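User: Let's play a game. I give you a shape written as tokens, and you guess the letters that built it. Ready? Here's round one.
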């Protein structure tokens, strides 16, 4: 398969997987706390990757382990908990839309910290994206007083973490195979995730039926939505560019929105407008 066609195929597969992650988080929160969800997601993924990719970590050179640690922190550890906490207060549809700011942040961080150059249309895209975000948040807060839209800041922080992760991967780990990066990431995170899990009341509630049902959703989220998806994502970064790889977040809200409709979530007309404005901004910022 030609490289150009293959990278688009990977992009659409990622959109389907990650677009479904938000509803899995919502279902997981029925029986688990955000800290339990985040830590179990990492633990399940770590076990899966160590089973299939333990030998691959020998490909990681000693000087690269610091970047493996940094990408594990920004790419998974922090966002895993922030998304879980945020979705206790805001809908999965809104979370997925705000996540589409990742390419904008990738561009900004790439320019400020990694030496990427800006074009005028890209700066315009950043500004338009921020306007759309404000529309989404302010209107959502007005029409959904039961939801605390301050928690959208956690999604914005997560998108900054993702953007930092992508730039680190492209600059420092482009010569490492995706499976090795993923396995190394989760090897680093396994012990901290176990510490977080057992610092909660997990052992006293694990026998509850709803907790066990939630753990099944986290298992799918960890293995497919994190483990397999990360391998695909790292491959996509290596064969394209950071901004193209993060453009998967244009498509994620579409998948997440249809899951939200099935789960009786709905956006207002102004929020639809805000989502559309965000996507325009992301498109402009991603133009070469």
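Assistant: Ready! My guess for every position:
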């Amino acid at each position: 398969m030609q490289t150009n066609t293959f990278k688009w195929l990977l992009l659409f597969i990622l959109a389907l997987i990650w677009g479904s992650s938000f509803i899995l988080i919502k279902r997981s929160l029925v029986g688990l706390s955000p800290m339990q969800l985040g830590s179990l997601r990492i633990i399940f993924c770590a076990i899966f990757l160590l089973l299939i990719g333990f030998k691959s970590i020998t490909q990681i050179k000693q000087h690269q382990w610091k970047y493996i640690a940094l990408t594990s922190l920004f790419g998974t550890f922090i966002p895993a908990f922030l998304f879980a906490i945020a979705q206790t207060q805001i809908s999965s549809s809104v979370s997925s839309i705000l996540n589409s700011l990742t390419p904008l942040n990738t561009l900004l961080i790439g320019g400020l910290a990694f030496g990427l150059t800006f074009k005028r249309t890209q700066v315009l895209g950043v500004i338009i994206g921020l306007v759309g975000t404000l529309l989404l948040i302010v209107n959502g807060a007005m029409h959904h007083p039961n939801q605390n839209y301050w928690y959208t800041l956690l999604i914005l922080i997560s998108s900054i973490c993702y953007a930092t992760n992508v730039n680190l991967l492209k600059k420092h780990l482009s010569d490492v195979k995706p499976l090795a990066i993923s396995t190394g990431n989760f090897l680093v995170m396994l012990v901290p995730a176990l510490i977080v899990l057992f610092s909660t009341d997990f052992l006293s509630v694990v026998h509850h039926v709803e907790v066990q049902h939630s753990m099944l959703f986290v298992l799918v989220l960890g293995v497919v939505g994190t483990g397999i998806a990360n391998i695909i994502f790292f491959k996509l970064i290596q064969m394209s560019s950071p901004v193209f790889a993060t453009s998967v977040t244009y498509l994620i809200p579409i998948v997440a929105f249809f899951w939200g409709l099935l789960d009786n979530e709905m956006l207002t007309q102004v929020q639809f407008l805000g989502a559309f404005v965000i996507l325009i901004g992301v498109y402009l910022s991603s133009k070469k």
